[in-house]
């Protein structure tokens, strides 16, 4: 099998794992199983903390034994997490699902992009990462189109049906070809940590992007549904709204064209500004239409930021322990995300209006830090 076939397999796996049929009612599904909004944020914080603990060991495992083995084990665990999610009816069961999902996603995190980056022409990396994200979005899109019919039967059926594409995705992982990236060159975890943290500018960049990622995730997954209800939108339209969000997010596939034309800094700065402003405006509106527009802007903006961020992180790595370093960056990001998520859950318990204001404030803070990062990089290049 040609190494380039890895890209197509990863595209298909990403597409299938986007088939989360319960996505448009994920918060309502958990609440129907007896989980409060605060408990949802607690579980998300637990998930983030576990991701922090698992990231570095998984990355080290991937660099020592290979990307394929890591992805096979991780995708099987991902499948198991969906089975447990369907069976969960208590906080303890959802806690177990969070543990297994954290194990799975921390294994995939970094390893998937390391495999892709090692299988392509480096000049095509940003475009390829954009397509990779777009395939996940396309899966979510198709799932959203079908979810209205599926959820009308029951939310439980939507959770059950989600298991099927994850079975296929796990099986497809077996056909990935391992890439040759000096796995025989043993790099210790300590050395990988030193390599990663020595690039302080990149650590700052990762922290800021992770905060924005958590803001986007919280708004588009947890806070959106109560906001839609507040705006008088009937639950039967949630699937259609999610479909529209995924269509808009497909814009990520063209992010590389923006950076080539306007430059990476200018693109990221403006996209972060859109996220911050939209978050603040959400706190002041009770209009269903405006709520959908602002959340769509947030989704579209981060969809374009994500492949740019992947490209920047991969190009910053010059050592052979790519998966380990990407996992360390992910761990650093998850740490900041966990802190944001925990504090956001407390604020959201007060009111979703306060939660949106909080999201706007920390987005502005991230914008300031990102601006400082690019200035530092520019100074280093000119010196």
UniProtKB/TrEMBL annotation:
Record localization: Cell membrane
Organism name: Clostridium bovifaecis
One GO cellular component term: plasma membrane
Protein name: MFS transporter
Membrane-spanning ranges: 7-29, 35-54, 66-85, 91-120, 132-151, 157-176, 202-223, 235-253, 274-305, 325-344, 356-374
Bilayer disposition of the protein: Multi-pass membrane protein
MF GO annotations: transmembrane transporter activity
Keywords: Membrane, Transmembrane, Transmembrane helix, Transport
Main localisation: membrane
Ranges where the Major facilitator superfamily (MFS) profile domain occurs: 1-378
């Amino acid at each position: 099998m040609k190494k380039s076939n890895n890209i197509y397999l990863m595209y298909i796996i990403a597409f299938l794992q986007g088939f989360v049929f319960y996505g448009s009612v994920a918060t309502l599904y958990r609440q129907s199983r007896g989980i409060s909004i605060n408990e949802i944020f607690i579980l998300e914080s637990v998930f983030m903390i576990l991701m922090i603990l698992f990231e570095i060991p998984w990355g080290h495992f991937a660099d020592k034994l290979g990307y394929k083995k890591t992805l096979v084990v991780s995708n099987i665990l991902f499948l198991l997490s969906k089975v447990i999610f369907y069976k969960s009816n208590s906080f303890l069961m959802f806690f177990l699902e969070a543990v297994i999902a954290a194990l799975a996603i921390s294994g995939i995190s970094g390893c998937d992009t390391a495999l892709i980056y090692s299988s392509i022409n480096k000049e095509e990396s940003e475009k390829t990462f954009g397509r990779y994200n777009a395939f996940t979005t396309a899966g979510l899109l198709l799932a959203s189109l079908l979810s209205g019919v599926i959820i009308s039967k029951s939310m439980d059926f939507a959770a059950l049906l989600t298991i099927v594409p994850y079975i296929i995705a796990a099986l497809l992982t077996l056909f990935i070809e391992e890439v040759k990236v000096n796995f025989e060159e043993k790099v210790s975890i300590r050395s990988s940590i030193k390599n990663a943290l020595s690039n302080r500018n990149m650590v700052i960049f990762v922290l800021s992007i992770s905060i924005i990622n958590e803001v986007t995730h919280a708004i588009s997954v947890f806070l959106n549904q109560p906001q839609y209800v507040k705006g008088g939108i009937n639950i039967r339209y949630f699937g259609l709204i999610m479909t529209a969000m995924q269509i808009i997010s497909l814009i990520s596939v063209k992010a590389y064209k923006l950076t080539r034309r306007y430059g990476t800094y200018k693109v990221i700065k403006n996209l972060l500004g859109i996220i911050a402003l939209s978050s603040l405006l959400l706190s002041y509106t009770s209009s269903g239409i405006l709520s959908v527009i602002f959340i769509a802007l947030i989704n579209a903006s981060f969809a374009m930021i994500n492949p740019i961020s992947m490209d920047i992180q991969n190009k910053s790595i010059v050592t052979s322990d790519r998966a380990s370093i990407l996992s360390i960056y992910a761990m650093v990001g998850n740490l900041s995300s966990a802190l944001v998520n925990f504090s956001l859950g407390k604020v959201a318990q007060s009111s979703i209006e306060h939660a949106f204001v909080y999201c706007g404030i920390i987005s502005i803070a991230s914008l300031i830090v990102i601006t400082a990062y690019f200035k530092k990089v520019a100074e280093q290049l000119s010196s």
